[in-house]
């Protein structure tokens, strides 16, 4: 039996708050037992709501409708052959006015796409068995026989007579230059610059045939839809 005053105070505090501690301990025990049962019921309800979810996830996608189109493949999933080059134009054979030439592309191993067919020969040379191929296109420059050096020479030496414009298929401007002696020299000088920079092309919008291999001029027009980006200084 304790007779110290401080010990009596501690015993009184324990007797006062012991019911509250007992209720808190009981509440915690009930919560710990309720959590596993709730998780088990949630898992059972989810499995009941979607009984085929696991089967669908493991189901192999072999239907034709799930295959991608051949033009939706990413680079690295196929290998295309080089187009045949026409020595006279130095461009791809069968280049269309839209600027595309047909090429044969071989799919990587174990890949298929909508529109593929059995390759006649292996392009990569690495496949032990015949692989799958598809027909694709590559960019090219459509030409119609107009020589670049001929257009420049005509513009420099006979541009005041309009022969350069006649050669490129602009008869109206050629006649105007003929009767005004090259627009009093102004149109003559202007056409020399425009044709040399390939800004003025043949009237059918074909590209020039260049007699040498080298860099070609490509115009990138700007419009209201053009997005310009630049760094900050």
Q: Please, could you describe this protein's structure?
A:
By secondary structure, this protein is an alpha+beta fold. Among the domains are: 78-142, no CATH class; 146-208, no CATH class. 39% of the residues lie in helices and 14% in strands. The protein is built from seven helices and eight strands. The strands form three sheets. A four-stranded antiparallel sheet has the order 1-4-6-5, with no helix packed on it. The protein has a two-stranded antiparallel sheet with strand order 2-3. β2 and β3 (91-92) form a beta hairpin. It starts with a helix and ends in a 24-residue tail after the last strand. Residues 145-193 form the TM2 domain. Keywords: Glycoprotein, Membrane, Signal, Transmembrane, Transmembrane helix.
Give the key terms:
transmembrane; 8 strands; alpha+beta; 4-stranded antiparallel beta sheet; TM2; signal; 233 residues; 7 helices; transmembrane helix; two-stranded antiparallel sheet
Could you give the topology of this structure?
Elements: H1 5-49, H2 53-58, E1 78-80, E2 85-86, E3 91-92, E4 100-107, E5 117-118, E6 132-139, E7 143-147, H3 148-158, H4 163-168, H5 171-179, H6 181-184, H7 186-196, E8 207-209
Parallel strand pairs: 7-8
Antiparallel strand pairs: 1-4, 2-3, 4-6, 5-6
Helix pairs in contact: 3-7
Secondary-structure element pattern, one letter each? HHEEEEEEEHHHHHE
Report the oligomer.
single chain
DSSP helical segment count: 7
Q: Per the principal axes of the C-alpha atoms, what is the gross shape?
A: elongated
The low-confidence runs, each spanning 5 or more residues with pLDDT under 50, are 45-64
Spatial arrangement of strands, main beta sheet: 1-4-6-5
The value of Rg in angstroms is 40 Å
Average predicted local confidence, pLDDT: 76
Task: Tally the beta strands.
Answer: 8
Terminal-residue CA separation: 87 Å
């Amino acid at each position: 039996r304790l007779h110290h005053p401080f010990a009596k105070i501690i015993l009184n505090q324990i007797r006062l708050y012991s019911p509250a501690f007992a209720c808190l301990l009981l509440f915690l025990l009930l919560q710990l037992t309720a959590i596993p049962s709730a998780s088990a019921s949630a898992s059972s309800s989810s499995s009941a709501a979607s009984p085929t979810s696991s089967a669908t996830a493991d189901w192999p996608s072999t239907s034709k409708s799930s295959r991608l189109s051949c033009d939706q493949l990413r680079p690295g999933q196929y290998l295309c052959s080089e187009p045949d080059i026409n020595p006279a134009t130095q461009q791809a054979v069968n280049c269309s006015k839209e600027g595309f030439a047909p090429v044969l592309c071989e799919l990587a191993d174990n890949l298929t796409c909508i529109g593929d067919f059995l390759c006649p020969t292996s392009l990569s040379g690495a496949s032990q068995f015949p692989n799958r191929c598809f027909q694709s296109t590559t960019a090219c420059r459509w030409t119609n026989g107009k020589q670049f050096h001929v257009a420049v020479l005509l513009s420099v030496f006979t541009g005041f007579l309009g022969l350069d414009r006649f050669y490129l298929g602009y008869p109206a401007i050629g006649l105007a230059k003929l009767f005004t002696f090259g627009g009093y020299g102004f149109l003559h000088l202007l056409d020399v610059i425009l044709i040399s920079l390939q800004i003025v092309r043949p009237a059918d919008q074909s590209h020039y045939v260049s007699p040498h291999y080298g860099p070609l001029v490509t115009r990138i027009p700007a419009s209201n839809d053009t997005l310009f980006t630049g760094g900050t200084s």
